[in-house]
């Protein structure tokens, strides 16, 4: 499917190349132009091919192959917006033509709209389950989605291969990507609609990155009042004196390479800073109730965050969601069939966090 198409004209799947004797001269001319366009594209002359397909479309705008082939040429010349438009026109004319959805997926991937591209390639496999090109493109866009969270290509591919099913369709990892992307929109908006002054920073390798290094990096964008690394969780919390500085740092440092990893930055769910020097920290006491603790701190002083309670740092190991194994739903259970908790096949890796992906 990675090349131009010269068949599939009648019935969206027929392979007859015979032209009827009474074919309209205009339609015949359009197909002659398209044949020349195919030849140009196969030789790598994509600009010339685009011009020929454009002339063919003008003569016969009902032939979906012309749009599909021109979309291919736009894709090869990195004109992804135009490639997408042509792919959608091809689908409009032939909604059962698998190559139309393939061209759409390629264009969307070029625009870095990976979630939408995944849907398009999945549709290809519904129409043509033996399409190896679509399987490879699915792997590529799923890998790209994980890479955007800050992981390397090798880590991303390993995660997909470890947790994805063999059919090429949706899996717990894919579902988890969509869940993370949904929450990502709310907590990764550098415009900072909630006015927070704290940042959560993931992918922090404790053997390569320390508080001082993070302080130096994040101080470029405003007054940093505290830096706190959590080595066991491969993350850190950065507090600024103003909400503007926090948003600016997120905007400029998202996916910044530090210690061999790309930083993943978001606004945290719990430390809430109102930007006026009043630090509000939400924490649980031993009885499980929420306490709001406020401290008045000048912008130039370091805010010492409270030490987590035993309850906060205790790792969850018991059953979740009723009687399901916590480790099965995250990083994998070493007990296998001997585990006393349930291993639901559809839940494997479902609750895995980005920082729990193995190298």
TrEMBL record:
Protein name: Uncharacterized protein
Residue span(s) of domain RRM: 197-270
Positions with biased composition (Basic and acidic residues): 1-11
Residue span, C3H1-type domain: 319-346
Entry keywords, A to Z: Metal-binding, Repeat, RNA-binding, TPR repeat, Zinc, Zinc-finger
Annotated PROSITE patterns: RRM, TPR, ZF_C3H1
Residue ranges, annotated region (Disordered): 1-24, 339-359
Zinc finger (C3H1-type): 319-346
TPR repeat intervals: 30-63, 98-131
GO terms of molecular function: RNA binding; zinc ion binding
């Amino acid at each position: 499917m990675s090349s131009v198409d010269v068949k599939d004209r009648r019935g969206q799947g027929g392979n007859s190349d015979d032209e009827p004797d009474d074919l309209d001269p205009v339609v015949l001319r359009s197909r002659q132009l398209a044949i020349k366009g195919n030849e140009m594209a196969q030789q790598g002359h994509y600009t010339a091919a685009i011009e020929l397909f454009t002339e063919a479309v003008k003569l016969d705008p009902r032939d979906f192959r012309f749009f599909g082939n021109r979309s291919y040429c736009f894709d090869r010349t990195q004109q992804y917006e135009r490639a997408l438009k042509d792919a959608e026109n091809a689908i409009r004319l032939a909604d059962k033509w698998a190559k139309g959805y393939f061209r759409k997926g390629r264009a969307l991937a070029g625009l870095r709209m990976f979630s939408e591209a995944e849907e398009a390639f999945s549709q290809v496999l519904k129409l043509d389950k033996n399409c190896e090109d679509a399987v490879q493109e699915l792997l590529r866009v799923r890998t790209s989605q994980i890479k955007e969270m800050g992981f390397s290509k090798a880590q991303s591919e390993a995660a997909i291969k470890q947790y994805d099913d063999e059919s090429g369709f949706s899996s717990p990892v894919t579902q988890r990507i969509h869940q993370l992307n949904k929450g990502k929109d709310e907590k990764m908006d550098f415009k900072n609609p909630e006015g927070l002054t704290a940042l959560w920073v993931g992918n922090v390798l404790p053997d390569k990155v320390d508080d001082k290094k993070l302080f130096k990096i994040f101080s470029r964008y405003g007054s940093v009042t505290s830096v706190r690394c959590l080595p066991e969780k491969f993350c850190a919390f950065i507090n600024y004196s103003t909400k503007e500085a926090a948003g600016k740092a997120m905007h400029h440092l998202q996916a910044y390479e530090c210690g061999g990893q790309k930083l993943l930055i978001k606004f945290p769910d719990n430390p809430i800073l109102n930007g006026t020097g009043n630090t509000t920290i939400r924490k649980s006491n031993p009885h499980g109730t929420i306490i709001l603790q406020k401290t008045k701190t000048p912008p130039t002083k370091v805010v010492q965050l409270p030490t987590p309670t035993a309850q906060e740092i205790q790792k969850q190991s018991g059953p979740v969601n009723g009687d399901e194994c916590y480790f099965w739903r995250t990083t994998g259970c070493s007990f296998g069939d001997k585990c006393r908790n349930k291993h639901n096949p559809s839940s494997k890796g479902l609750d895995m966090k980005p920082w729990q992906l193995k190298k």
